[in-house]
Amino acid sequence: MESDPRKDYAQYMWAPYTQMGDLAEEEPIVAVDGDGATIVDSLGREFIDGHAALWLANAGFGRTEIVEAATEQMHKLSWFPSFGGMSNEVAIALAKRLVQLTEPEGMARAFFSSGGSEAVETALKMARQYWRLSGHGGKFKVISRRKSYHGVTFGALSATGVTANRRLFEPLVPGFRHIEPPYCYRCPYGLEHPECALACAEELERTIAFEGADTVAAFIGEPVMGAGGVIIPPEGYWQRIEEICRDHDVLLIADEVITGFGRTGEMFGCRHWNVKPDMMVFAKGLTSGYLPLGATMAREEIFQACIGKWGEGREFRHGTTYSGHPAAAAAALENIRIIEEEGLVERARELGDYLFDGLRELTGMPHVGDVNALGLIARLELVADKETREAFPSSELAGLRVNRGMLKRGVIMRPLGDVMSLSPPLVITKGEIDAILLALAQVVDEL
After folding, report:
1. Which 8-state DSSP code applies to residue 22?
2. Which of 66, 239, 272, 409 has the CB geometry, 3.0–4.6 Å to 439, for a possible disulfide?
3. Short-list 240, 297, 339, 243, CA closest to 119
4. Full residue range of the structural domain in which residue 38 is found
5. Do 308 and 228 share a structural domain?
6. Does the N-terminal peptide bond of residue 194 adopt cis geometry, omega within 30 degrees of 0?
């Protein structure tokens, strides 16, 4: 008898961010096929993937062009390292392409890793080494934001501001500080934009002053905060953050792991506010998930501070085995070609407006407190009382209940507490968006 992969999943796997004790109630989805914005599971059920797996299937499922590019590369050269003066031509070609793409931001060098956590870890180490080799070794602290998500390795986790992710692994890496996020719907200061005068951004300056600018190496932030609840900052926020970093000689790191490669309706999220970071971090949409790959981009002055001759102690003693993996690099190059030639950035902008219009039509429902979107990344926040913005008691599991209802209607979303997040493949159709919105209206009505 053929085994049931769902039972094998529960028996043999220890899955990430999964409460394995609830699998029977959760009805695990074991995907076996995918095309465009849909996947098919082991039971033959079809789902619209409203979350692009984990924010990343930008080019959609079933792109044979990407598969063929990676396969062809593996036939030629399956693997070769990038350590000690060695590399492979496709990794070099990808580095050049990424530098070209980020020319408006001033990026000059690409350092490859296996995913987003490693790419963030790389940026944090670059920042500390840059200041130490520049004669400012006291600048080691990193400021990020509460509710931010930057990864699971210890440095990236220390920057992360999701308390539940941190608690069981403490103590974490020293030198990390957190400020309030630009969460306008639940402003921690009880203010309204624009009368707030961007108090959440001004907190960065106050924190730098408190810590001492001579001790702060970098500020790291997602252009749009993803796992913390799809928090989209108000106009002026990022411009002020950049200004504060420049005023106090603090490096600005843009974590574009979720927002990069078209997700927000721009190639990179920081372009919505014309921000010029010192470093940019990529993963997810870089290959649309076809193979694991991360990249950390840096300005030339950061690179130059970290190079010299052997024996001088200036080399960047950091790297991962699969840095610049040729098959992953080939997949990334083909993925970028598809995004550009098929106009997926513009498509994300157009369909994002369409999705946002549909979400706004749901705001008359009694338990829909807030909706927002930027390109094809969106949020719908569930509330117990929309007049007072009172949240549901955590015991109600409102977001989880809505998520289960959506799965029964053939739609995959991701509940972030009581925020229902959407980030579908950029190839999704209007008809599929309509189906998501209809299912969402029905499930929230039942709530």
Report:
1. G
2. 409
3. 297
4. 5-59+343-446
5. yes
6. yes
**Do residues 219 and 142 touch, judged by C-beta distance below 8 A?**
yes
Asked if 132 and 278 sit in the same domain, the reply is yes
Q: Identify whether the C-beta of residue 289 lies closer than 8 Å to the C-beta of residue 57.
A: yes
Q: How many CA atoms lie within 13 A of 14 on its CB side?
A: 0
User: In this structure, what CATH number is given to the domain that contains residue 410?
Assistant: 3.90.1150.10
User: What's the number of domains the chain is made of?
Assistant: 2
What pLDDT does 224 receive? 98
Position 26 pLDDT exceeds 80: no
Per-residue CA distances from 355 to 18, 330, 370, 438 (Å): 29, 32, 14, 12
112-120: average pLDDT: 98
What share of the chain in percent tops pLDDT 70? 99
* Same domain flag for 105 and 200: yes
Kindly report, residue by residue over 290-332, the tens digit of the pLDDT: 999 999 999 999 999 998 888 888 889 999 999 999 999 999 9
Report the relative pairing of strands 176-179 and 141-145 from DSSP bridges: parallel
Residue 224 shares a structural domain with residue 88: yes
Looking up residue 157, the CATH number of its domain turns out to be 3.40.640.10
Q: CB of 91 within 8 A of CB of 324?
A: yes
pLDDT score recorded for residue 20:
84
Same domain (yes/no): 215, 335: yes
Alpha carbon dihedral 50, 227, 43, 70, in 10-degree steps, equals: 80
Residue 230 shares a structural domain with residue 268: yes
Separation of CA 400 from chain center: 21
